[in-house]
Amino acid sequence: MALAADMQQLTNTITQKAVLIEKLQQELHKVIVGQQYMIERLLIGLLSNGHVLLEGVPGLAKTLTIKSLAQAIDAKFSRIQFTPDLLPADVVGTMIYQQHAGDFAVRKGPVFANFVLADEINRAPAKVQSALLEAMQEKQVTIGSNSYPLPVPFLVLATQNPIEQEGTYPLPEAQVDRFMLKVVVGYPSKEEELAILLQQTAAGKPATIQPVLSIIEIIEARELVKQVYVDEKIFKYIIDIVFATRFPSQYGLHQLASVIGFGASPRASISLAQAAKAHAFLQKRAYVIPDDVKAIALDVLRHRIGLTYEAQAENMQADDVVQLILKNVKVP
Questions:
Q1: Residues 174, 250: one domain?
Q2: What is the pTM of this model?
Q3: pLDDT tens-digit profile of 268-283?
Q4: Which residues contact 292 (CB under 8 A, 6 or more apart)?
Q5: Which H helix or E strand runs over 74?
Q6: CA 282, CA 221: separation in Å to the nearest integer?
Q7: Which among 165, 62, 186 is positioned nearest to 117, based on CA atoms?
Q8: Count of helices and strands (H, E) across the chain
Q9: Residue-number span of the structural domain to which 137 is assigned
Q10: Would you call 4 exposed, middle or buried from its count of C-beta atoms within 10 A (0-12, 13-18, 19+)?
Q11: Is residue 86 part of a domain?
Q12: Burial class of residue 54 in the structure, from the number of CB atoms within 10 Å of its CB (0-12 exposed, 13-18 middle, 19+ buried)
């Protein structure tokens, strides 16, 4: 009885806080037409403290959505345009010699912000991409001999273009794994594209985004997400899904044994549980159900599964592998 009462109280609190998140979404839709899936995934990353990688062709409002999200929250935002000549110091900062003082001072880079937009992240070489690794995982940056904590919240929201390969550097597996979600952004529908046309060609002043949430409110929402209840059966379901990417034959998926080069890491299990909690929160629930895990599994796993040359020859994508696993792993 006590547990039921606690769950009811948590549900009521989540419902109240979810209204603020809905207000945030409404603010974003002032300038973003459609793209509800992308917006929801960005919110899941925000609520579960996970970095998000957006992949899609140019012109799908990836950069605009991230920028608008930062504007709708009263927080510090910085944008880094990744280019082949970018240096690690351009991202994290460096030591500057001050002649008048006769010593070195730290000049912090644009990574010292609540929201960091890494635009076209695959256009910079590996040494620049690796400069983000410590920041993304440890939430700190080392400049010289000292380490400096990054602000809270700290979120890297990155974009990359999948169709252009010239002048790009594929992200190392170690870095990709640090993104909680990899979201594939699709084209808008006919109705949405018509609305975009009307919005962009309309006379008058364009809509602007106003801050509707504070950092404190985001941190409070995150604390509520942590309290969302996950039953042991759900945890076991998550583990089964992740283990099926490593040992597919044990789950009756013998056809995947030759197409999976390597499976998802333990970070995938953690991310799947955290993202499922955030998904339940957005549905105004105080507990996770299997549908929450299924809804977020593609975004959590697609970039954590390595495919063999045989998979490429058969034109099989990571999404196909995850879909097969979700169909075959027993749901609690």
A1: no
A2: 0.88
A3: 999 999 999 999 999 9
A4: 276, 277, 279, 280, 283
A5: strand 73-74
A6: 11
A7: 62
A8: 13, 13
A9: 2-200+215-219
A10: exposed
A11: yes
A12: buried
